[in-house]
TrEMBL record, chains A, B, C, D:
The gene is purU. Transmembrane segments: none annotated. Pathway: Purine metabolism; IMP biosynthesis via de novo pathway; formate from 10-formyl-5,6,7,8-tetrahydrofolate: step 1/1. It catalyses: (6R)-10-formyltetrahydrofolate + H2O = (6S)-5,6,7,8-tetrahydrofolate + formate + H(+). Its EC number is 3.5.1.10. Keywords: Hydrolase, One-carbon metabolism, Purine biosynthesis. It is an enzyme of class 3 (hydrolase). Residues 21-105 form the ACT domain. One of its GO terms (molecular function) is formyltetrahydrofolate deformylase activity. Catalyzes the hydrolysis of 10-formyltetrahydrofolate (formyl-FH4) to formate and tetrahydrofolate (FH4). This is Formyltetrahydrofolate deformylase.
Length: 299, 299, 299, 299
């Protein structure tokens, strides 16, 4: 499977050698779209898709994502970036050029429950998750086999609140070693320190097993059962220092009824968790998400 | 429209003259189903649908709803009820016989926003809500015309926290006058006193404009917008003394995204509120709901 | 209610005096976005939202919808349109300028079943359907009262296949008299002649009570029941000469199970029909739909 | 993983040693429920769940599924079955006793696309599919590794319409060898002969990649794209001799829009196919499905 996935990714990189994405965020003002599209046109780039959004009530912020094709992109890109910096200065832009052939390196943190990890591995095996799953780190041995059998390095690092700092030091070393762009907490269930969160700001995605802000914190299915809700959900979000309060990327729900006990809710919930996390990770990999304060714009 | 609805209801009553529902709740033990179905068989009743549920972990509670047809039901029913009381004693049952031709009298409490009231009126006009909408009470004049034009009595009773007791006295008089079985709070937006809540226990349905327990209390759409959720919801529940904490009957959700401001969320939410409240009211009218502690069993 | 709706619409028109939409369709080529956005910028217009789509495999068609604000729009608009025609010529554009304060005149064709008509009337009463519902025409008297009580002219024109031509002559006269922009078939159930369809091309919306292309033609709920499907749906589409084959605007579905007979399916289906038709009509009114061949692009 | 799954299944068998299901189908008549529940009570069995349904318009057919617990079930069961045959004769019942600890032997037929096979394997690995996946047969080598690495026997049998009979002879031999109770066509894409279909009547489940009866036959995603639908679906059904016309077990749908080309529709569709097939197989394994004519009753 590993080979299958690798070949799919290589083919994808070749097909998309000339494709890039430009993400922009700046104060709203006249002429932004005209200037940016003129810039791309002059550099021989053709806009494939373009999305924009203006957040009025909170101070006129403008957000844009442009995906474009440009012949000989690899040769031209440094020049284009230099030229664009003048425009960016003028409009006070916060911006990123992302090149599709630069496949992101992903680390997955897992614990005992394998369903979210397995969904990501499986999407990756099928060639539907265009990333390099570089490493899996877990505080349990449970998932070692399913990781290593796919040719992915696995690190077992036991964790608990007392040794948090030390655990994170080990984790960070590994993340640096594999040059990780994105960390996915696939039901990792451990709280991270503010230092760690800061270092991976907007590059650290969690799945919470409730429809946030309902059931923040531990044991959401147990509490959903106690409350007698008729739907349960899952929420994928970027991690911040406030537990389960980071910018929400995606949510979904499923129906339950009085016959569903906690175990049944968990099973229904796991299917929701899998697909919600998988969508959130894909959107991040496709550079579709702009974080603004405590919210996400998903283009 | 009024006549259309009245004719539909009369036809429904005639068609269902011999139809009844038996709701049972008792400690679980062997032989309940055998005994009850034998009882119905001996009295010439034919079971049309039957649902049961046993809640194991919390003490072995047994719940059952049987809908049956019985020739000459109206003549037989008092005898059947008397005979059944022996069975009920033996199994320590909490039970209700409900007769389908006994159409329930419903009062709707409304405020300024008409969408939930309108949905109920409209379902009723179409002959899809088998109830007698006997009276509408509102603390605003806004909806008077849409109520009176349908031939339904309308009472305007201004309300605010200071005069709560006095307002409720007036309301109770009206509810008694119309012999009300069910009170529906169709976005009434006023808190009721424990006395009122107690008097209409399990007969007082509210619609809350959030996916409870998220956004309990005031201004849920504003808070959903601030939190950046990707879905909003509505919850219909029986009212208890704890604000928005009563037994949930039904919930549903709709998707929103970064483009939706508070006004857009409200519009999306109103469609959800309408259908969630309407389903909850119908299930109550069809005697499908058994309240157990802070939860509902919906058969 | 009529007054309420009228006031809402007037307020909406005033708020949106300077707002317009530009819909473009042309062969794909470099520089379109740059040129159009430059044009708007030079004329003092600020882009509020912009959506684009390129249909690659079928010949490189480019589609765009821009919503913009422009001070003194009413004074400037004829000049802008003239200036734009040069750009349009260069890029071989098919385009439309739509001004938000030009509220569209809508005629609704109804028959016996009122649910779709009522939904539209109700959305309109609530100020959520920004149109002038100018007239309702029906081949049955059933809905007269609900139309006239809202102050909307109602015309009863009996219809059957034999007198189709003559019926349509009468209908067309009324449509001209009220200067109708959009005709909505709210479960009208009569087939229209090719002449009529041609005259209202892309301005004639139907709701079909199945998930097309399943159950094309008559009695879809009966056939859904016979087939034993687990979901039923509704489809809103522009009408063409081929029965139920026109460009689909919106679809939705609901769950059914073995307990649902044809009557139950109809009730479940009616709620779906209502919301699907209502969404399709709103999108048309907001100039979100571009028809391309037998498909729609909905921005 | 194999061991994990085996242990889960063994634990499940032990837990459910005393649990059985009784499926009944007979002409409707008074006293069925009373008689059956009396029978179970007398034999010391306690009803855990019970579902019934009466199909009125088509001749008064009665359907029932009872799940019960009975101490020493394994010792008692042959006696119970013998005693029950008298009741069955009296009511002209078609019935089955199913014992939960009798885990069903499942064969999966696959082809090139692995997603449906993988979902089933994965659910099985997680202990969520309570079956013995005894063998996988495919007309391509693609999935060999993912099957064998899980310790499941894999047979490669090339197939095409010309050699259908001969291929099926080989397949049948294998199915007999493994004592197969259920055959799942996980996107097998080959038509089976009437003989084969007859032999596995109501034990042969297929997944069709469209919302049947829309897009019966080949290339449904291509045709959905051509038609411009706004939703695509998947349908799981028992196989009959009429292509894609067998009794539907489960369906689901997902939203698509104009941006989704055939490849995108396939990806969206694959996720739907996976979950629809998985639900259908689980319901079959849990003895929840009764086939009646060309429909299913799913309790």
């Amino acid at each position: 499977m590993h080979t299958y996935s690798e070949n799919k990714i290589k083919a994808y990189q070749q097909e998309n050698e000339n494709r890039a994405r430009l993400l922009i965020r700046c104060p709203d003002q006249p002429g932004i779209v005209a200037t940016v599209s003129q810039f791309l046109h002059e550099h021989g780039a053709n806009i494939v898709t373009s999305d924009q959004y203006t957040l009025d009530p909170e101070g006129g912020q403008f957000f844009m994502r442009i995906e474009y094709e440009c012949p000989d992109l690899l040769k031209k890109k440094s020049n284009m970036e230099k030229d664009f910096s003048l425009i960016a200065d003028k409009f006070e832009m916060n911006y990123d050029f992302m090149y599709v052939h630069d496949i992101k390196n992903v680390a997955i943190f897992a614990s005992k429950e394998p369903h979210c990890l397995l969904e990501l591995l499986w999407e990756w095996e099928s060639g539907d998750l265009m990333a390099n799953i570089a490493v899996v780190i877990s505080n349990h041995e449970t998932v070692r086999e399913m990781v290593e059998s796919r040719g992915i390095p696995f690190y077992y690092i036991p964790a608990n609140p007392e040794i948090r700092k030390q655990v994170e030091e080990e984790q960070k070393k590994i993340l640096e070693q594999y040059d990780i762009d994105l960390v996915v907490l696939a039901r990792y269930m451990q709280i991270l320190t503010p230092d760690f969160v800061k270092e991976y700001k907007n590059r650290l995605i969690n799945i919470h097993h409730s429809f946030l802000p309902a059931f923040i914190g531990a044991k959401p299915y147990e509490r959903a059962f106690q409350r007698g809700v008729k739907m349960i959900g899952a929420t994928s979000h970027y991690v911040t220092d406030d537990l389960d309060e980071g910018p929400i990327i995606e949510q979904d729900i499923g129906r339950v009824d009085h016959r569903d006990d906690v175990a049944a809710m968990k099973k229904i919930g796991q299917e929701i968790e899998r697909s919600v996390l998988s969508r959130a990770v894909k959107w991040h990999l496709e550079d579709r998400i702009i974080v603004h304060g405590n919210k996400t714009i998903v283009f």
